[in-house]
Amino acid sequence: MSSQTPRRAADHLVDQLQAQGTDAVFGVPGESYLPVLDAFYGREQSIRFVTCRQEGGAAMAADAYGKLTVRPGICFVTRGPGATNASAGVHVAFQDSTPMILFIGQVARDMIDREAFQEIDYRRMFGQMAKWVAQIDDASRIQEYVSRAYRTAMSGRPGPVVLALPEDMLYDEITPPPAPARIETPRFSPAPAAMDALKERLRNAERPLVLAGGGGWTAEGIAALQRFAEIQGVPVAVSLRSQAVFDNDHPNYIGHFGVGATPYLADALADTDLLIAVGPRLGEMTTGGYSLLKPPVPDQSLVHVFPQSEEIGRVYEPDIALVSDLQSFCVAAAEWDQIARSGSANRTKDLRQQYETFNDPASVPDDPLAPMFAHLADVLPVDAIVCNGAGNYAGWLHRFYRYRAPGSQLAPTSGSMGYGLPAAIGAAICAPGRTVVAIAGDGCLMMTCQELATAVHHGLNLIVIVIDNARFGTIRAHQEREYPERVSGTALTNPDFCDFARSFGAHSERADDLQSFSSALETARARGGVCLIHVPADPAYLSPGKKL
Q: Strand, coil or helix: what is 490?
C-alpha cells in the first residue's frame, strides 16, 4: 500500500499489529471501538479476533499468549466496566513480567473530563499496574504509540502497556507513514567486569546455588542456563511458578521456592554461601515472606541478574549487580570452563535426591490426589502446556507434576484465581499442536467458567481438570491456622460440573479415583475438543498429606 493512500485510523491500527507479527488478539466487543472490530473483518486468515465472554478472561488469555511467544499479548476491551474487568489480567501481567498491550475504547475527544458515559481516566486507573499508560488523541500518531508500546512491553523487565482509543479518533482518515520494522526484544550483555567478579565468587564458593525465575525467558536462554549448570555442577532451584525455566527431570534441578517454605530447600538456602539469582525479583512468596533471605543484606553472598537496573537492590542489596537480559547472561555464562569447586557436584546430587523424595507421591501415603498429578507427568507429552490459577489444589500440582519444556507452565505469580481456563484458551490459540491442560479448583474455575463457551465456540482443543472440595480451600487452611473450628465465608455450593460442561457442548467425565482419572484423561486426549474431568476431593485435605 502506498503511504499516500488515505487510511481509516482503525484499519491503520490493525495494520500495526499485523506488522509486528501478531496473529491473534483477545477481547470482548464494545461500541467504543466498533471501527476496530470492523477493521478485523476479512483478515481472519492472518489475525484472529478471539471473542471472550468477560474482559478479565480475555486479558488473562492475552497474558498467556505473551508468556508463550515472549511478545505482547493483545487485548481489546470497551471503556469503563470493560476496562475494570480487564484490570485483573493486567495485574497478572505486571507481577508476572509478561509483555501485553491492552487497548481500551474511550469516550470521544470532545467529551473528555465530563464524566461521560463509562468514562475513566486510565492514566490514573492503571498507573501502578502498567509500564506505560497513554491515550492516542491524534490518529496520525498511531504508529508512533503502537511501536513504543511494543518496545516498552518487551524491553527491560517485560510488562503490560495500556493505550486508550477515543472512539471518534478511530474514524479519522490519515495518510500512513512507511510501514514499521518488526520490533524485537533488545539484547544486552552483562558488563565484563561484573562477569569477571562473578567468576571469582563462583571459584571461591563452597556451596553455590542458582535461583532462576521471573519473566522474559526464551528457549535459547533456558538451554544456556542448563549448559551452565551442567558445566559447573551447581544446583538450580526456581522461583514461584517458574518451574518451566529448568527441566524438572534434569539432575541439576532441585525444586521450586513456592507458597510455603519447602523444608529441604529452606535448609539448602540457609547453607548457601553464594546465591546467583537469575531473573527472579526475589519477592514475598519466593523468599518466604522475606524471611528465607534477610533484607536488606542477606547472609548469603548475592549476585542478582536482572534486565532492569531499578529492580536490583529494591529489597536486597547484592554483592554483584548484573544488568542483562536473561538470554544474553546465560549464553555468556555457558561459555565458561568448569570453575566451580568439585564439591558442588556432590551437593547437587544430594539436593536432587531430596527433591526426588519430596516429588514422589509415596512421600504422602494415602493422599488420593498425589498419584493423579504424578500420573499427569507420566502420560502427558513433554511439551504439554499445563495452566492453573490459585488455590490449595495447586500445591499438589506444583509438587508432583514435572515441567520439562520451555513454556510448559502457565501460572500466575500474582496468585490470581480464575487464570487457568483463560490461559489454556490463550495457549490453545497460540500453540494448537501442543496438548493443553487447565487445572482449577472449584472456586478457581467458577471465577472464569464462562470462558468454556469461548473454548467451544472457537473449536479449541483443551482439557479442564476441576479439583472440587466445595470450598475456598486456601482460605479455609488459613482459617484453620488462625481461627481453628471457626469456619466463616469459605463453604461453597457448586453445580454438577459434568452437566455444566455439557451444557456448553463440551465432553465431561467424573473421576473419583486414580483408575477412573486415568481412563477419563485417556478419553479426553483421544477425542479432542473441549473436555472436562471432574475430580471430587476430600475437603479434609488442606495440602499434600495434611488433613484437618
A: coil
**530-548 pLDDT, tens digit each:** 999 999 998 888 888 887 7
Which CATH code of 3.10.180.10, 3.40.50.970, 3.30.2390.10, 1.10.10.10 fits the domain covering 7-174?
3.40.50.970
Query: In this structure, what C-alpha cell is assigned to residue 507?
Result: 465432553
CATH topology of domain 192-357: Rossmann fold (3.40.50)
Nearest by Cα to 253 from 376, 402, 413: 402
The 8-class DSSP code of residue 471 comes to B
Assigned CATH class of 364-547: alpha beta
Name the pairing type of β-strands 541-543 and 546-547. Answer: antiparallel
Q: How far apart are CA 103 and CA 72, in angstroms?
A: 12
pTM recorded for the entire structure? 0.95
- With 0-12 CB in 10 A as exposed, 13-18 as middle and 19+ as buried, what is 319? middle
- Are 80 and 31 in contact, with CB atoms under 8 Å apart? no
Other beta carbons within 10 angstroms of residue 209's beta carbon come to: 25
Cα angle: 51, vertex 90, 73; to 5 degrees = 55
pLDDT of residue 81 exceeding 80, the answer is yes
Residue ranges covered by each domain of the chain:
7-174, 192-357, 364-547
